[in-house]
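Trying the structure run again after the queue cleared.
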Amino acid sequence: MAKIKNERRDFIKFSTLGILAVALGGGVVISPYALQAEMRLRPPGAVSEKEFLALCIKCGQCLQVCPYHSIKLADMAKGHGIGTPYIDARDRGCYACNAVPCVLACPSGALDHDCEKPEDIKMGIAVLEFPNKCIAMTNTPVPKGHSKRIHDFTNAQRNVTQLERDVLEKLDAFEGKQCTICADMCPIPNPLSAISMIRDGSGKKPEVYEGCIGCGVCEELCPANEAAIVIKPRLSYEDYYVKGIKS
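Done. Tokens:
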């Protein structure tokens, strides 16, 4: 009987050590992601990253009310902040809903309720990060099937909304035309305050202004294989374009 108890005690001891070793090893692997946490694109109204991580109760209510399926919950691969909401702009940007329902749904203050309308949203800033990939600059027509990736993401959702269908219909209409998608699909009420297409050689290129809220729709809908325009989370127009802060 004593031998059985000792065997059980040894099993528990070494099993616990093994679990601790895995946990510590996992910490080493994900620590670089933890250092980049502030570069994650958060939903509208998100307070500072440190405060956000302290306040967010990981309830997922912001995700449930988003009519565009823009919000995801971070898993272990995203480092610390597991279960907290974020937006992967290449998959689906934020469409700046008039009532900002994700903010209204947040019960903890992680999404600031002073963010009441699209103009109040400050998620980041759009940047033409890869101009060599911008098909507007080479005056290349928007290719056939350019919206397949967006259609596939939308159709994979359990409850596709009419708002999402409207986006797809509008996006499909750009096929064969000169690309102005990032400017013409900007969802904020006054898109010209955020982005426009300006002449550049034989083509055009997007120019970003102070009204940009960093919603990520331009990054999502960019028809290039790799988005030419991307969002720099938690940076403002002044941070990036005036002060020259890059990350």
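Residues 1-32 have pLDDT under 50 and may be disordered. Worth checking whether this holds up in the mutant runs.
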